[in-house]
Amino acid sequence: MSRAEVNEEKKGYFGDFGGSFIPPQLEAVLERIDNAFQQYKDEPEFIEEYNYYLKEYVGRENPLTFADRLSNELGGARIYFKREDLNHTGAHKINNVIGQILLAKRMGAHRVIAETGAGQHGVATATACAMLGMDCTIYMGKEDTRRQELNVFRMELLGAKVVPVDKGSGRLKDAVDEALNDLVENYETTFYLLGSAVGPHPFPTIVHHFQSVISKESKKQILQKEGRLPDMVVACVGGGSNAIGAFSEYIEEEDVRLVGVEPEEAATLTKGTPGVIHGFKCLCLQDEEGNPLPTYSIAAGLDYPGIGPEHSHLKVSGRGEYETVSKQEVLDAFQKLARTEGIIPALESAHAVAYAVKTAPSMDENDIIIVNLSGRGDKDVNEVRLLLKEKEM
Ligand SMILES: *Cc1c(COP(=O)(O)O)cnc(C)c1O
Fold it and tell me: What's domain 12-51+93-207's architecture?
């Protein structure tokens, strides 16, 4: 769906999803961010600065690697990997973080706040804040700071202040509430940096914009290498930012299938129903009273009961397909990719790999699949070691 299809009368809607369901004191704050984004996103100087940091700091453009041994072993479609795992900090999140911080600077902010569950978005934010000279405060549920000790230390090394939140259940939702309170109090100096394609308008649109660099590059690269577009693009879906970035340039190419992959245990799009969580309308896993249901995934980045509004719309309109894979399929794909291609993927990304492994053999050998490798797996190696040991016993 092009930006033009965003329903302007109902601001920030993708079909029936999105919008903003927020306390009145936040409305003016988010409108200010939306206005600044509209003002700067197409400005040549802004684009030039963004591209400068993507090249010199993140290391873009990253390759579209043909997986020769994996494709041969599976038989069937030819598989390419878009290598977001090779970015500085090891994942796609930095694309969005740098874009939003540059926007914050244009707005006169000198302080960035964010909330993080597993810590990956917090680390990416602290990293780019250090590089761009911004104060950085990260809110994190107290329970999560215990489970993610090493990421807390990383953020502190990078100069960020990590605030453990022990209100409520001490989890992500409580950290979001604290960050929003901070924003309402300090909006003149402070920018709230959202890490995925979720949240109230204008965040899903901003994140789409900055992550679309993934498919802008992959489209150019596949045309150079194969002289044609892929038959299928596959990406894992947590909140939906790497997937929307991997899909965006293909949404209007109707012959390209777009497949988002979720964990069986957090199958938001496969099993969710329309509801409002965290300030926006989407398909989500909820109880009869509309409270978010607990989810669980071996990949912390996919452990979220909602999903971005644009994916909700792609699903309902039929343009996007959303599938699940099991924990076992993910662990198998993780090891298979390591052995055949010498790439250890993030557990999140291994969901997309698992779907490609399952699907490629039934496709034609002239077909092309692009799998978005959203991140590298160094962070997950110990977790996988323990999971595999558990199975032996
Ligand atoms: C955070 C993360 C994800 C999930 O977030 P999305 O917004 O759905 O992309 C996926 N892969 C990696 C490597 C991540 O760090």
Answer: 3-Layer(aba) Sandwich (3.40)
Same fold? 12-51+93-207, 59-91+212-392 = yes
Check if 217 is active-site. no
- Over residues 229-250, mean pLDDT: 97
- Residue 229 Cα to ligand 1 midpoint, Å, equals 24
Q: Which range, of 231-240, 292-301, 357-366, averages the lowest pLDDT? A: 292-301
Angle at 230 between CA 229 and CA 233, to 5 degrees: 130
Q: Which token pair is 41? A: 């996103």
**Atom 14 of ligand 1, residue of closest alpha carbon:** 301
The CATH class of 59-91+212-392 is alpha beta
DSSP assignment, residue 384?
Answer: H
Q: Which of 71, 84, 115, 248 is catalytic?
A: 115
Residue-wise pLDDT tens digits, 16-33: 999 999 989 899 999 999
pLDDT tens digit string along 258-280? 999 999 988 888 888 999 988 89
Report the predicted TM-score, pTM, of the whole model to 2 decimal places: 0.95
What SS3 string covers 178-218?
A: HHHHHHHHHCCCEEECCCCCCCCCCHHHHHHHHHCHHHHHH
Which residues have C-beta atoms less than 6 Å from ligand 1?
A: 91, 93, 120, 196-197, 236-243, 301-302, 346, 348-349, 374-375
Q: Give residue 242 CA to ligand 1 midpoint distance, Å.
A: 6
